[in-house]
Structure formats: structure tokens, C-alpha cells
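Appendix B. Raw example, untouched.
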Amino acid sequence: MAGIRPSQAYLALDMTDTAPLASLATDLTGGRTSGLRFLDDAGTLAIVLDVTGLAEPERKPLEEKLRDALLARDEVTSVRVAMTAEKKALTIVAVGSGKGGVGKSTLAANLAVALHRRGVKVGLVDADIYGPSLPRLMDSEGTKPEAQGSKLVPVPNAYGVPMLSTGQIAAPGQAIAWRGPMAGKALEQLVDARWGAVDTLVVDLPPGTGDVQLTMIQRHKPAGAVIVSTPQDLALIDAARAISLFEQADVPIIGLVENMAGYACPHCGGVSDPFGRGGAEAAAGEMGIAFLGRVPLAIGIRLASDGGVPPAAGTDPAGEPFHAVAAKVADWLDARKAR
């Protein structure tokens, strides 16, 4: 070994013995490396780094940390890191309704926030192409998503739920007058984005049973669907149509939520039921699907939502109904994974 420069010490080593380097790489990356080998006698090292599940800001620092540690070894003169990532299948929870005006978007936003607070790596898609309201509900109006290559990067927010919506792309108040194929393409861009560590998407569908719902089912089949309805018969008739669409496409119904169920007078405390009560729960029983809970018609929910503060993000009692629904959805998702 006398007279050999440290940077060339590899010449006196058995170059097939890469076990120490592989062990170092494994320890540094938590087992994310493979395929370590020398490419030549000059000490050029190649290694594969699996970055599946890591967000974009996490990948580069891990690569640099690995590269620096390997370059610190005398036998290594340069390092070529090939980063790979499996395209993981996202678990999609569709939130739908048979008609508009039943509080579907409010439920979708709070469901996503509540799931996040339970530890679910969740993202939110506003697929209500023609009437996007999630930017207001999630306090992200005026923030446009960036693009990396051909894919959009979801917009972060204060509630830990990255989100994409056509409402973040179109000008405020601008009418979105797209025909079916255009709307389907927009949905594709929103769902097939750079979601990073997210593994579950809550997708707020437009009301009804039209092109966007069909595109979702055909291209990004949901793992299950949550149906939102108010208690009155007219809303339940349309909710049954939405349930029928998902059942025909073999999309499981996670359950039915009764929204705007009961109004407590802020002055006398008396509770009235302007839209009726128990209709959705009774309908769920008749159709043999789960009843996920009811959300009251409360001024606190309305004020918080208009202010871009989902009630599920705080500790106010207004958020409790959403957490109760999220607990049942989380249990359903856990049971699905266990099958």
C-alpha cells in the first residue's frame, strides 16, 4: 500500500466487496437503496435510490446526503444516483350528491381535514368543475398551483391538506363553460398530479350523475363513495340516483351523511327541523348502506366556512360532527386495507 494515494486506495482493495458501502447507504436512507456497484476501475459508483412516497422537497436532500457520505470513502471518486419511484395507486374517496345545495363541498373539505388530523396522508381535489368552492373553504383563493413538467403541484394550506381545484386556475368569478371532454381532461390533470406523500384523495364531485362522475369512475375508479343529502324527500330521491350510479359501476358506498339536520335557535336554544329529520338515516337503512352521521344546520359552520376555516380544523363543537363522520370513513378504509 506504500506510495498509493488515499484517493486511489480502491486499487489495492477487492472492488467486488461493496458490502460496507451498501450497508452505509442502507443505514443513511432507511433501506431505500439498491443496485450499488462500481462502474469502472476509477471508482465511479452507481446506486439506485427509491424515493417512493417522499415529497419533492424531501428527495434532493436525501440524494445529497447519500452522495456526500459515499464520496467521503477513499475508494469512491464519483457517485451516480438514479432516483426511482413507483407510481402508487391513490385511494380515492368520492364525495357525491344527487343535487346541489346540500353541503357536499363543506362536508368534503371537513372530511379531508378530519382525516388528516387522524394521521391519514390525505389530499383534496375539487372536481366540481363548474362550481368550485373549495378554495374559499380551505382559504387558498388566489393561490395558483405550479407545474413540474406536465403535472400540477398541489397547493398547500394551513390545514395540512394539499389541494387542487379549477377555482385556483380560473380568474375569480369567471364562468367555466366547458363541454364534457374538456371537463374530463381537467379532472385528469387534477387527480394525476404530483401528490408526493399523499396516499388518499378526497374528491369533491359535482352534483348529479354526469360526465365528470363517469370520467372519474372510468379513469380513476374510487375505492368508495360518501353520499351527502339533506333529510327532505326531494334531496333523498336524487341521492338515491347518485348511489345507483356508483353501485352500477361497482364502487362501494361507504355511507350516507345527513346534512343540515336540525337548527338550534341561538336565542332560545330550541331545535327545529326545517328540512326534516332522520330521512337520510331511514333511507340508508332501507337501501342497506351505512349511515355515517348527521351535521346540523348551524350558523357557526356557515361563518367558519365562509371565512376559510373548516370547523374540523379547530376544537369548537361545530367540528365534532365532521370528526364523527371521518372516524367511520377511516375505519372503513382500514378495513379495506386489511382485506
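End of appendix B.
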